[in-house]
Write a structure and sequence with these properties.
Helix content is 51%, strand content 14%. Strands 1, 2, 3, 4, 5, 6 and 7 form a seven-stranded mixed β-sheet that branches. Strands 8-9 form a two-stranded antiparallel sheet. The chain has three domains: 126 residues, Acyl-CoA dehydrogenase/oxidase, N-terminal domain (Butyryl-Coa Dehydrogenase, subunit A, domain 1, Orthogonal Bundle); 106 residues, Butyryl-CoA Dehydrogenase, subunit A, domain 2 (Beta Barrel); 146 residues, Butyryl-CoA Dehydrogenase, subunit A, domain 3. It has 398 residues and is α+β, with helices and mostly antiparallel strands. It is built from eleven helices and nine strands. Helix 9 packs antiparallel against helix 11.
Amino acid sequence: MTADIGKALGTDYYKVEEWMSEEDRRIRDRVRDFCDREVIPVMGRYWNREEFPFELVPRLAELNIAGHVIPREYGCPEMSNLAAGLVMMELSRGDGSLSTFLGVHSGLAMTSIALCGSEEQRQRWLPQMARLEKIGAFALTEPDHGSDVVMLETTAEKDGDGWVLNGSKRWIGNATFADVVVVWARDMEDGEIKGFLVEKGTEGFETERIEGKIGNRSSWQANITLENVRVPEENRLENANSFADTSTVLTNTRYGVAWQALGHALACYEAAVSYVKEREIFGMPEATFQLTQYRLAGMLADLTQMQLVCFRLAQLMDQGELTHGRASLAKLITARKGRQICAEARDLLGGNGVLVDYLVGKHLADMEIIYTYEGTDAVQSLIVGRSITGEQAFVPAG
């Protein structure tokens, strides 16, 4: 596997690979090779059946990528911010469901514990989660509160030396098989949002898998009901005491989602270029037609813009300059452009573009999930708009 993948495939038009360290390249190449050999050949079957690829989890663990940038003292790889983005890009290029699984486990659950947990909680959970021996989930979204998560209604009431949780959650990835779920609930005493670690098998904690999705079909989301769920004080995230703490986790996660969108777009662009070079129309290769080249140029322009945004965002993270607005703008740009690239590739492949075996149709469907989760296009626009004007416009005036 060549280190200069972008050059070999014609996708690194502005030579962004020059910004990678040798270690970044090694991590990127390792994940890409894994996806090429073990993920892409089988995930279409899992996707069709809405089955999660449990068999791939041990192999994913061997890559030593869970935990991304979390320090080595907790058994995590402590990779660079750029490498963490490249991991999500390559996993999404391989399969969106597998990328979402790791995004929930590592980007949401592990990050919540790393940023908001006590030292004891970090030592207890993170090493096992880094080895994928314990799987995590992140329960924030509720049935009646999607974009307006700050209005969540799940409650936490202090009771002796513990807490009692009541409420419901929806669209919670990994929840049906997770060993620990980070549940966000409103403290009945002070009204603030707090985080709790609910362990597998806790009485009153029930999950129901959501079926029938049009995308990310192998990533399992669930409805959760919490009925008098008792959580000991030592399972409360001691540094999660307001929605601002929750928002910090979400901002870091949007960084990874931007890279996921880039991965889907990259897969579809590569597939489209390969296809039109081999496909003949009216006795000539499809690649020789003006309209085809016009569309490929537009796709590459969008792909290059996505790359530049993601690589720059990694630099801003290194400088401690990742703001809510910058993370949202990156998610807004990459989701819009990624969606368009996937749609163009699907069209260039004609009828074959709707077949799962040709990949682009599956990526297009998965891209619809990216476009929606971790904040819709409209919500990201309002976050950016707030940073521009200083005015909160989520709720109409009056």
